[in-house]
Amino acid sequence: MRAFTYERAATPQDAAAALAGHPQARFIAGGTNLLDLMKLQIEAPTHLVDVNHLGLDRIEPTPEGGLRIGALVRNTDLAADARVRRDYAVLSRALLAGASGQLRNKATTAGNLLQRTRCPYFYDTDQPCNKRQPGSGCGALQGYSRQLAVIGGSESCIATHPSDMAVAMRALDAVVETIRADGSARAIPIADFHLLPGDTPHLETVLEQGELITAVTLPPPVGGRQVYRKVRDRASYAFALISVAAVLQPDGTGRVALGGVAPKPWRVAAADAALPQGAQAVASALLQGAAPRPDNAFKLLLAERTLAAVLAEGRA
Amino acid sequence: MKFDTAATTNPIDRLRIIGQPADRIDGRLKTTGTAPYAYERQDIPGDMAHAYVVVAGIAKGRIGAMTLEDAQAAPGVLAIVTAANAGELGQGKMNTARLLGGPHVEHYHQAIAVVVAESFEQAREAAQAIRVTWLPEEGNYDLAAARTAMGDAGQEDDTRVGDFEAGFASAPVQLDATYTTPDQTHAMMEPHATIAAWDGGSLTVWCSNQMVAWTRGDLALTLGLEKEKVRLVSPYVGGGFGGKLFLRADTVLAALAARATGRPVKLALPRPLIANNTTHRPATIQRIRIGAGRDGRIAAIAHESWSGNLKGGDPETAVDQTKLLYAGAHRLTGLRLAELDLPEGNSMRAPGEAPGMMALEIAMDEMAEKLGMDPVEFRILNDTQVDPADPSRPFSQRQLVECLRRGAERFGWSRRQARPGQVREGSWLVGFGMAAGFRNNLQTKSAARVRLDGDGGVIVETDMTDIGTGSYTILAQTAAEMMGVALDRVAVRLGDSDFPASAGSGGQWGANNSTAGVYAACVKLREAVAQALGFNASDAVFEDGEVRLGNRAVPLAEAGALSAEDRIEYGDLAKRYQQSTFAGHFVEVAVDAATGEVRVRRMLAVCAAGRILNPKTARSQVIGAMTMGVGAALMEELAVDTSRGFFVNHDLAGYEVPVHADIPHQEVIFLDETDPLSSPMKAKGVGELGLCGVGAAVANAVYNATGVRVRDYPVTLDKHLARLPAVA
Ligand SMILES: Cc1cc2nc3c(=O)[nH]c(=O)nc-3n(C[C@H](O)[C@H](O)[C@H](O)COP(=O)(O)OP(=O)(O)OC[C@H]3O[C@@H](n4cnc5c(N)ncnc54)[C@H](O)[C@@H]3O)c2cc1C
Ligand code: SF4
């Protein structure tokens, strides 16, 4: 960890401005991801701007009938919110499937969206990694890749985005709200928020330097049966091998997104459309063009079988 | 005291305190966070400096250049020690690779430097500023490739009884199968940590170590000191599992750093470095052949195991149990060692039998199925009460059959469906599995000093360690029973090389031997007390804080502050009798029919392991071991990058061990047993027995649930997913 300076921002715009001219500065929210990365010198910011005291910790109804989740709402509070549990159960379930109680008490909505990959080569500074050190190569491509992406990756990087919460938000068509240093705000559909690696795997989202997430909004509830199924090697406290977030309507239509298979929460319009045809059709639409490695090819079959179980649960 | 004939009745047999489920006497310290672990000690005089380790980023080769200037100039830095300025270092007897490497690199994350600074943060930042250019060399990292290259040739040191090849060839029912177990890391909670301080030419290290005398000796050898100049203190150990049996880099580097700075220095190995920097359990490839008659009697059994290690290292002794567990006239066992450039392999959680039983007990399950026999009955049929290689050598005690029968009854084994893949509960496939448990009992000399404080209290001093097992408590129970005082009148001081050398903690030999050492010292002390108070030692009764004979009773306190030291040593009983411990392990699992995820539902272990000194601490040992068995069966694996030569998932996010949610109902039954041939305590090891066999019981239950046989551990869902029934 490098020595760094620290400030506590007073308003969202101050926070954004504090980072704007400062490529080596970062926001810190719960710190559950950033601090670990700093200790290993995977991230080495020289300045931290604490965004915990900006009043962005409320969950409020929107005029359209949806919910606006402040960027600093803790994962625990979001999962326990009665409106979320009633109207967006897939989100509550996804949150509770992630990390541990202690971590969820600290982890924030924005921090969760921005958490970085768990690729083990990314975490080992003695190994090549294009995401950590652009141009150094990708250790995982020829190495151990059991956890990594089967689709959406590139010859530069096959890392997955590890969030559970984001997969549910993708199924719910959430929108990320931000503020920039000049005070301008924008709303980014979650589908467009994360980037695929291409040959720039170090660029992970469309956020500009200094752009602060202020909230995530959920459109009005869509009802249906809401399922989050996370598959892993142990019963708790493990990242997903794959996960399925699904909203299933009684007429057989619905939405479905996958976690653990791609560099971002993975949803494909054709797969939603294929829902009435069953799991195989959905899986092949979702995973068309997949390029698995020998270590992780099992994820294709696992996704299909898990989808089948989720659809059966939806029908039940 | 020399123990060379069967124990007769002695004061331990009163079982007023021994054999009772006493709470851990260190429990309050542990649960309140006040037991000072090595890194947290506040009582070391002097101005503490902090050290951080720098490690090799390649698996094999040399350091081209190491640029230290930025680190040296960093704030707070006091010294940087490398092989170039450390002075000449020796090599510990138990170490294969050097603990301070450079310019040669022998394995990934081998330590190559240590940075000392005023604060931990400064040391870490400076360590990260050291730039190294590497000159990598080709290495061998792939056990499977090495095994293929080695072929099936036997070796001179193979153990042979009868004519295995002929016996196997003529057996009407045969199994020839290969099983694999992965590399594993100990994953103990407390990392390796040391505080070191010099006083002139004398060194004291406060560290976390299971074997005080071994490690003190190896530290002296490494630093070129006389053993007497080294004191090692390790009173609390936050888990070891074999990872702290030996001198490791934390202790050597802290000592060098303290010497370079003239200050006490503390150092802990960071978690992500532990898997590659320290030792691990080596992976194995095990071929097992069993030939039996149609009646189920084993005629021929062979077990060969391939494992890798650094040049000069040892193989994983995965075939030992196969020499002893089942009958059969024709036998072959052999170990094959491949030279690999992965980190150093060594003991972990029941080395040998843990991975060996994982393979053997699946093979037995497969064989039972081929024979159309119940797996419990197949094992019972092939029980032996003597060493199969030497029928003149009986087992000192062997209640394997009783363990299996009792376990089967208690578990409801009769409800098991012999045909696999038949039981469905909702979305779960349900299966039962079992395995025998087996682990040898080892006799090792062990010394202790026992003192009277002159006020009716007793003090026990020995360098024995308590690695979370309950040593403090059972040693106190032993002294209390022998001296006739209440448990709370005994103070136990452990883990200090100034105290008499004990057996230490490893190989499940700690409890029986170290309590026997305290027993020996107590026998001597009783004689001194009797003499001081004018009693005949052999007739005097030590009870309720008094010494009594006839109608004369004298408070123990009146004997004054006496002290006695002795050790237990063993004759040839272990040669004349095979000493082993036995168990029956039973497991029920559920497998998600869609995803293939395996979840254990309930577990039972029935153990026969001599006298149980404290049923509460023994049970804790066994349920902990059963948990390790679930880890080994279902998730624990160090993933090898066979081109870069290292363990990739080297932190606790990547290396999964069971969490609470993975561990359901666990039941442990101890059979009533005393073994007068093991020691005056009539006890044996029990902790590691709780692990040996569990992995196979889980794997066999998974097979029973799914009908898909997985022979490569861990049994993760990807290994059976494609063969599970279609999702409805
Ligand atoms: C052991 C462990 C297990 C875990 N398991 C899981 C799991 O199973 N599933 C899962 O989904 N997650 C898991 N996590 C990840 C966890 O969810 C994230 O660490 C957490 O959500 C990050 O939130 P935070 O507030 O602590 O982020 P921080 O660490 O504070 O920040 C993360 C990043 O977000 C940036 N940032 C924070 N707030 C803002 C903002 N308002 N605007 C712009 N940028 C911002 C920071 O600059 C930083 O780059 C696990 C983490 C750990 C340590
Ligand atoms: S997959 Fe991506 S994160 Fe992992 S090593 Fe390759 S570039 Fe780095």
Protein topology:
The complex is a heterodimer of chains A (316) and B (728).
Chain A: E1 5-8, H1 12-20, E2 25-28, H2 34-39, E3 47-50, E4 59-61, E5 67-70, H3 75-80, H4 82-87, H5 89-96, H6 101-106, H7 109-114, H8 120-123, H9 165-171, E6 175-179, E7 185-189, H10 190-193, E8 212-218, E9 225-231, E10 242-248, E11 254-259, H11 269-274, H12 279-286, H13 298-315
Parallel strand pairs in A: 1-3, 2-3
Antiparallel strand pairs in A: 4-5, 5-8, 6-7, 6-8, 9-10, 10-11
Chain B: E1 2-3, H1 27-31, E2 49-55, E3 61-67, H2 69-73, E4 77-82, E5 104-105, E6 111-117, H3 120-128, E7 131-136, H4 143-150, E8 159-161, H5 164-169, E9 173-181, E10 193-199, E11 202-207, H6 212-223, E12 230-233, H7 249-261, E13 265-268, H8 271-277, E14 284-292, E15 298-309, E16 330-339, H9 353-371, H10 375-381, E17 386-387, E18 390-394, H11 400-411, E19 423-425, E20 428-440, E21 446-452, E22 458-461, H12 471-483, E23 490-493, H13 510-533, E24 541-543, E25 546-549, E26 552-555, E27 563-570, H14 573-576, E28 580-592, E29 598-608, H15 615-634, E30 640-641, E31 646-647, E32 665-670, H16 694-706
Parallel strand pairs in B: 1-27, 2-13, 11-12, 15-16, 22-23, 29-32
Antiparallel strand pairs in B: 2-6, 3-5, 3-7, 4-6, 8-16, 9-14, 10-11, 10-13, 14-15, 17-18, 19-20, 20-28, 21-22, 21-27, 24-25, 25-26, 28-29, 30-31
The structure holds flavin-adenine dinucleotide and iron/sulfur cluster.
